[in-house]
Amino acid sequence: xxxxxxxxxxxxxxxxxxxxxxxxxxxxxxxSALDPGAAVRAAPGAQAGxxxxxxxxxxxxxxxxxxxxxxVSIGDLAASMASGERTARSVTQAYLARIAQxxxxxxxxxxxxxxxxxxxxxAAALDRERAExxxxxxxxxxxxxxxxxxxxxxxxxxxxxxxALAGSVPVEDSHVAERLREAGVVLLxxxxxxxxxxxxxxxxxxxxxxxxxxxxxxxxxxxxxCGSSSGSGAAVSANLAAAAIGTETDGSIVCPSTxxxxxxxxxxxxxxxRAGIVPISETQDTAGPMARSVRDAALxxxxxxxxDPRDPATAPGETRGVSDYTPFLDADGLRGARIGIQRSxxxxxxxxxxxxEAAIAVLRDRGAVxxxxxxxx
Length: 377
Hints:
Elements: H1 9-14, H2 21-24, H3 36-41, H4 74-83, H5 88-103, E1 112-115, H6 119-131, E2 143-147, H7 175-182, E3 186-191, H8 195-198, E4 208-209, E5 213-214, H9 230-237, E6 243-248, H10 254-259, E7 263-264, E8 286-291, H11 294-304, E9 338-342, H12 350-365, E10 369-374
Parallel strand pairs: 2-3, 2-6, 9-10
Antiparallel strand pairs: 1-3, 4-5, 6-8, 7-8
């Protein structure tokens, strides 16, 4: 596994329980939220900061997952459900089991505040629709997490991670949740976040909330998962859902996406309705997709974008009518683009330098014009 608190990404993806049985049983105590050794060695049930109302999910003794979680895409899931190889219910069951195995125990990522107690029933209903020839969208039957500041009118609460709103059940869906349901998405659960979307305090820890505890970065348990959409980022990176929805005022989608090695998009304000989302700024807030690939993020963006009479910023206009962003994906999009390399940030960490050089080589191979070096001083 490497040094304490550092997760081998590929091993993490291949296994159902990242820590392994020996490590999981190695200690009956659980250290502080940022003690990586204690987190990895913690015995099942010893996690701190876990909300008591979390829905029950299959434990580590559940049957093996019906598919390989390693970077499975929304397209892969859709194809497997269309062919009958998998069902929405079996996929949902597998994600719930994985949440139980590595989010609630083992490494205890704490990226999910609560799971949807009706997720399996919703998935089964979507399977029946598919069997009858009704497929709502490319997201039909795909399990997705939403950040815990996004209203869902179901048996889940919406609290922004705060005990002040514990037990709060919205009377109507946010427009985002409504659009996801219309697309046939299985709302799998609520993702942890920096409490109040980082509006609680300027000194609070990224990814910490009173309800969810300290969310951890799957790559290195003692490193910052960034926020405020920390749980959305960590859960997608750890393959606890096919994708997730985050929200951003300033950096709250793109920062955790960067820190957790996934793709995040902050849409232009007005592209996605803000109705039913716990607010910070009327002029900057927006929800957006967080996924493991650009294509998956584009699919999810198309599902949640659209006008909403509850949010005047979404009034129909030239940029509001797109429901499918995948046609804009261009494999040659980098060709001719001038990209500068700021060499002053190199030379501090050999492994990081190697990754940067490899990334530059990929950009050059894709047709980008590399300007090396540049000086921004």
